[in-house]
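tool_call: predict_structure(chain=1)
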Amino acid sequence: MKKTITKKDVAKRTAKLVGEKIYLAEKIVDGVFTSLREFMAEAEPEVRIEIRDFGVFEVKTTKPKPKARNPKTGEIIYVPARRKTHFKAGKLLKDVLKTPLDEIQSAE
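tool_result:
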């Protein structure tokens, strides 16, 4: 089963890591996420947000698709170009995620 981690969980762990009160960490974490969201929303048309030792958030432009097909009806439709988000993990995160699952489960 997939575990869901919320912004509040991130704030609690951040508070513990930096030795601050949870309410202060919540304000800071909320501010960071708001800033990232604003940078991505303001992208004209693309942006790259690089966070060292974590990864890269990007807003990329898609190509228009003049002959896409509606799978429900089979009708050929036009899909205009739009912007989409993309995340690419950094080296440290990739290395952790490359650990085979059987090694993680045997350590628990």
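agent: DSSP finds four helices and five strands in the chain. Proceeding to next step.
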